[in-house]
Amino acid sequence: MNAFKSAFRRGRVKKMADERKSNLKPSHIDEVQFERQDIEIFKIADVKTQLETIQNYFFPRLEIVVRYAMDLVQRVYEINPFESMTFVYRPSHRKDAKVNVNFNEAFIGISGKRDRKVRLVIKHKDGRPYSYYPASLTFRLSPADSTMYAMLSPFNFYVDR
After folding, report:
1. 12 φ, ψ (degrees, to nearest 5)
2. How many distinct helices (H) and strands (E) make up the chain?
3. Of 23, 102, 108, 122, which is most buried by a Cβ count within 10 Å?
4. Which H, E and C letters describe 84-104, residue by residue?
5. What is the predicted pLDDT for the residue at 83?
6. What is the pLDDT of residue 6?
7. What digits encode the pLDDT tens for the residues 3-53?
């Protein structure tokens, strides 16, 4: 009986490992899973390796969450949120970057598309117009407090009244 239990446990562990691998690149919101141990990726010592691992490990799942949210927006408000929005990612380092910056977070979200020929009305305190659209909705992973949360930022930068 103990041999059967042991074999069952080993088989179950292998099945759980196989399920875990398949859930890294889900195709549907019901397949998306995050676990507390995922946060260990943020402890990888080499920054470039850490950033690439974060992108490969979290981005496929976070993108499913964002697309699911945008599908809900489309159904509820009967608009296409992708017409005037674009995806934003962090970390979004270049593979050939000389310096990689670790922001100690990961997120995917949406922000407004910019027409660089049209100046925004919103300006910096010194009067210069913003170069980038200042609002976004992101789904973030924070290793500092082991949380995942949605963040709506109507203004990402300092804006006077």
Report:
1. -65, -40
2. 2, 4
3. 108
4. CEEEEEECCCCCCCCCCCCCC
5. 82
6. 47
7. 444 444 555 444 444 555 556 788 899 999 988 889 999 999 999 999 999
Determine the Cα–Cα distance for residues 2 and 12; give it in Å rounded to an integer: 15
Taking the C-alpha atoms of residue 97 and residue 94, their distance in angstroms, rounded to an integer, is 5
**For residue 101, what are its two tokens?**
């910056």
Sign of the C-alpha dihedral computed for residues 47, 53, 56 and 62 taken in this order: negative
Spell 30-52 as b/e; 16+ CB within 10 A means b.
eebeeeeebbebbeeeeeeebbb
Per residue in 86-139, pLDDT (tens digit) is 898 999 877 787 888 888 999 999 988 777 677 666 777 788 776 666 678 899
Burial class, 67, CB count within 10 angstroms (exposed 0-12 / middle 13-18 / buried 19+)? middle
Q: Would you say 29 and 71 are in contact if contact means Cβ atoms under 8 Å apart?
A: no
Pairing between strand 136-142 and 85-90? unpaired
Residues 6 or more apart from 149 whose CB is under 8 A from it? 139, 140, 142
- Map out the domains of the chain as residue ranges: 34-153
Using CA atoms, how far apart are residues 27 and 40, in angstroms rounded to an integer? 24
Could you say which DSSP state residue 46 is in?
S
The tokens describing 159, both together, are 């804006």
